[in-house]
Write a structure and sequence with these properties.
6-stranded mixed beta sheet; about 190 residues; alpha/beta; 9 strands; Rossmann fold; 4 helices; 3-stranded antiparallel beta sheet
């Protein structure tokens, strides 16, 4: 007897899967080709906004042969909420010199634009030769400050998504897919 499907097979807390692991891998390979066309064989520095962009950054790096340097910036903006909580704060900044170097800033999601704008301003003050931005997801409907990424994995509707580095209360980052978190989970307040 058929059963009524109410949850995603990928994880019981997902309402639906937006992008499968295979779709993500395919798009990351395409982004790697786009980056190679722009940077040629030259060296550049990748700055990853962590924790969210850690998986995306690692997979992008596997797609390029260029000599790259890597640094990370840690930003706090969501906490245990599903919406950005005011102004993002830099928790940990850069450790390598980027003056006169080509920089690629990578983030998991561009929604309000506040985080990437903050980090872009920080990077610009350090006088790189150039700076481009790459985001896995672009949620245009949530934009509060004007910002457009140079490279975009997927444009998505205004849904709260988790997986492949994206989290809710520091959970679900390890899912290989990207899915819409169920309203039931978003509304529970037992996690601290």
């Amino acid at each position: 007897m058929p059963t009524k499907k109410t949850r995603s097979a990928a994880h019981p807390d997902l309402e639906s899967v937006m992008f499968t692991e295979a779709q993500i891998k395919k798009r990351v390979r395409e982004l790697g080709r786009e980056l190679r066309r722009v940077y040629g064989e030259g060296e550049f520095t990748i700055i990853s906004i962590i924790n969210g962009a850690v998986m995306f950054t690692a997979d992008i790096m596997r797609q390029i042969d260029n000599p790259v340097r890597l640094d990370c910036v840690r930003i706090s903006s969501y906490g245990n909420a599903t919406k950005s909580e005011g102004t993002p704060q830099i928790v940990s900044s850069l450790t390598i010199d980027i003056a006169g170097r080509h920089v690629l800033l990578i983030d998991d999601i561009l929604d309000t634009g506040k985080t990437i704008k903050l980090v872009s301003a920080l990077v610009s003050k350090l006088k790189p030769a150039s700076m481009r931005t790459c985001v896995l997801l672009d949620k245009v409907a949530r934009r509060e400050v004007p910002f457009e990424a140079d490279f975009v994995g997927f444009r998505i509707p205004n849904k709260f998504v988790v997986g492949y580095g994206l989290d809710f209360a520091e959970r679900y980052r390890n899912l290989p897919c990207i899915g819409v978190l169920s309203a039931r989970v978003q509304n529970q307040h037992e996690w601290t």
